[in-house]
Amino acid sequence: MSAVRALVTGGAGFVGSHVVDLLVAAGHDVVVLDSLVAHGGRPPDWANPGATYRTGDVRDPGAWREAARGCDAVCHQAARVGLGVDFADVGAYVDDNDAGTAAGLRALHDLGFRGRIVLASSMVVYGDGRYRCPTHGPVRPGPRTADDLAAGRYEPPCPRCRAPLRWAPTGEDTPLDPRNVYAATKVHQEHLAAAFGREHRVAVAALRYHNVYGPRMPRDTPYAGVAAIFASAVARGDTPRVLEDGGQTRDFVHVADVARANVAALTAPEPVDGPLNVASGRPRTVLDLARALCAGTGIEPAVVGGGRVGDVRHIVASPDRAAERLGFRAAEPFRPGAAAR
After folding, report:
1. Rounded CA gap, 301 and 36, in Å?
2. What is the DSSP letter of 141?
3. pLDDT given for residue 223 in this prediction
4. b/e burial code for range 244-257 (CB count within 10 A of at least 16 → b)
5. What does DSSP say about strands 166-168 and 211-213: parallel, antiparallel, or unpaired?
6. pLDDT tens digits, residue range 140-199?
7. Residue 2: strand, helix, or coil
8. Of 185, 246, 280, 303, which is most buried with the most CB atoms under 10 A?
């Protein structure tokens, strides 16, 4: 595909800034829309001078219209992420994620946008991942309970016979089962964007990021993923606190790979529609991550038990569809300690 004029919302943030860097390096014209609230109201040191920055709130359709005018690609990264503090955050999540996306889609409708859209989605839309029971085959475990977590019953049992389950890779056709507020907003973002795409005949690629880590991770905030939370603790010289028994299985993918997936979706010769997992394809436990972040620091992670009912036990991606449709395979080695420092 020839050079594009791309709008990147949240382009001063963690993932968005890496997308901006790759687009600028490839010769594309890049406009960033970012509130800069997370950066004290001014662009961070890593802001790319080759992009045009517009300070604005994605909940404002007018800010979208000004930033998106003349663009033929939109990469919507701006969002409130993580599990937050507690359910009191529900309004802020719905406002930033759902209302912000709705405002943008309305603006694109007003502009007669006919390009392609890439939406930053998340593996949280699946809830718990895929499992197999030795007797009943593929099954879906029910939501976790506070009583089970308090008693140290972390592994989900078969809902029919209560036997232990084994996880299996989660593909994009897995039914959605959001289990916390953030997850519910990501599902709604996907549905809103897909509705826009169908009505306007626009390709919408919903990239379902798995656990992203790497340079520019947010620090010292509850609105962050587990890699950022652990990295913040290590940077302070504190012990990372690993919930449950540390055996939760995840797919940790480097932000450089996530950025490459976005650029591929924005610029592929043929537009790609629908959801795609963005993951390394190499599962590891949460305790593996904590130990890797602590390596060489003299700090050891502490496994503290407990847990959060909005969390899931195992969620590991199948990366095959992204490879088939985008030609994307993660390439970065697993070195979270080096990336964090």
Report:
1. 33
2. P
3. 66
4. bbbebbbbbbbbbb
5. unpaired
6. 988 889 999 999 999 999 999 999 999 999 999 999 999 999 999 999 999 999 999 999
7. coil
8. 185
